[in-house]
């Protein structure tokens, strides 16, 4: 078929994709449905649109326009959610900053991003002000006050429904929507550039993967600053669901919110699940309503799955990176395993699964760039290709070219492919331990250690050894009130691992983590040297 000139795109049949439109639609279609709950307050979608409109108008008065970077350093609160619509609606770029970072790192991000302004809530304002002085960036306090001025911003006063949300600055779906900095598990953070198209598609992929709809009640246990909340900031809105905002992760608050709001979904790192399960105030039996929980990072153990099932939690295991807008693959239990043992469920959910519905391609390739056999044994690197990948690293052309070399995005994660096509991570490239010429998976050892009843978290790294080159070193964080010694753990590992895989050293300490619960292995590698 010949593509004739009159078949080309035109204003009537092509609009750039942008997730900001999800809010515009929600305001038009169901303006009076509940949109946001925070503490004891609620806002409808009409009011949610008004909050975003107020912020967009305020940014315009600060002479913020298309392409300008705007930083937010806030907890999960209504204004942070509104920023995900207001900032891109005028063509500006949202830079969400980790609230647990130190002032020097925040200053680096402000300087590197060229941010025009940083808006911080009361919990982050002190660090933001220190960073602002270092980077010469204007700092604005987000707070409710009757005497708002240029250094204080109040978006929640009165009835925000009087303000109308509009999209005026999106000319190209490829233009930047967000600038997210990597979590710092490997050193200096890199600026990851998201485009409107990728954010739109990944959000809709989440809707289909997790079953979001108008009855969805999503509890914000995942920081919105982390991959824009895995794009759920946009996904829940697109479905017309209710966002339940939490200022902080506190088990009592989480369990209270689950009951009060009849929550249907939440997302979190495994460390949060362990925190909830080991909380003395957790319900004695099951939750009043079963909840779907999406988690990523460490593979769920059989003990974790059994405890979550008893609590009333259905687990979905996701895999992704900052560079893939969060979820790129997902693994959920098929119906045939509904009555399987906890061990069988854990074995299945240990997989990272199959590609997200809006992620174009996922493969595992060898060093020659060829797909590995789907035999459940041959290891290679997970590589991604598709519409839900970053545009590149900001101000780092070399790193961008390296990451996308050969027509694929290189994740640095080592995995196998099962005969049914599901992938399963075995380790990070940098975390493989080469001991006496043998490859030792730190993830395999960690999975064994997590089966011990006294262990909350375990991380294994390489430790230099004169004879073997490298040997495993395990860092252990125990559960509250639990104790375990080196000899017991050596015996525990020997009964489950080959001798050369048993850690030669155990270090008992609280593990260093990012705000999203990821263990900072680069800190532990330095400690093991």
Automatic annotation (TrEMBL):
Gene Ontology terms: biological process: fatty acid metabolic process
InterPro entries, alphabetized: AMP-bd_C (IPR025110), AMP-bd_C_sf (IPR045851), AMP-binding_CS (IPR020845), AMP-dep_synth/lig_dom (IPR000873), ANL_N_sf (IPR042099)
Domain AMP-binding enzyme C-terminal residue range list: 444-518
Enzyme class, first EC level, given as a word: ligase
Keywords: Fatty acid metabolism, Ligase, Lipid metabolism
Molecular function GO labels: ligase activity
EC number assigned by the record: 6.2.1.44
Record domain AMP-dependent synthetase/ligase: where: 24-394
Reactions catalysed, as given in the entry: 3-(methylsulfanyl)propanoate + ATP + CoA = 3-(methylsulfanyl)propanoyl-CoA + AMP + diphosphate
Claim: Lipid metabolism is one of the keywords in the record: yes
Family of the protein in this entry: Belongs to the ATP-dependent AMP-binding enzyme family.
NCBIfam families assigned to the protein according to its UniProt record, in alphabetical order: PRK08162.1
PANTHER family named in the record: ACYL-ACTIVATING ENZYME, BUTANOATE--COA LIGASE AAE1-RELATED
Name this polypeptide is given: 3-methylmercaptopropionyl-CoA ligase
Biological source species: Mesorhizobium helmanticense
